[in-house]
Amino acid sequence: MLSSNIPGTNIQFNEAEDAFTIIRPMIEITGGFSLGQVCKITGLLPSTIQNWVKRKYIPAPVNKKYLERHISRLLLVSVLRDYVEMDDIGSLMKYINGDTEDETDDIISESLLFDYFCRAIRALDETSLNDDNIDSIVNNIIINEDINHKKKLLIALKTMIYAYIAKECQEQIDMNISKLRG
Question: Out of 12, 64, 114, 148, which residue is the most buried by the measure of CB atoms under 10 Å away?
Answer without folding.
Answer: 114
